[in-house]
Write a structure and sequence with these properties.
The chain has 148 residues and is mainly α. It is built from 6 helices and 3 strands; from the N terminus they run ααβααββαα. A 3-stranded antiparallel beta sheet has the order 1-3-2. Helix 2 packs across helix 5. 18% of the residues are buried.
Length: 148
Amino acid sequence: MGIKDDAVEVRAQGWRTLAALHGSIETELEKALQSAVELSVVEYTVLDALSRQDGWHMRMQQLARATALSSSATTRLVNRLEDRGLLTRILCADDRRGIYTELTAAGQKLLLEAKPAHDETLAAALAAAELVPELEPLVKALGALQGV
């Protein structure tokens, strides 16, 4: 293996470590959110993303980017959440082709109920990951990104 190959392997190992950390955290969050409020991680992510917007709405394309989902997967997810009364879709006033997804009062209420379970589980999962030698540097780097 040459130097170039070594660099590729280092990046690949970094990616595998990040994927392992993400997978373990997501598994714990999924269990906690399902148990607490019957939400999946991606459903929580949608409600959380919408709650951070002025007026609690986003265009569908923005929501797809925020959740790292395809347009069709985002549409299916929005349909499910709309059926549950947690969000609604409205036409954009200045662009009739544009559709906004907006958090409802019920969606905001459920998000507030889910937030403690989410935050406690995330903190516990990160603390547990920090005890794994391969994950410790990554967990510390995440804390440094936010100045924690």
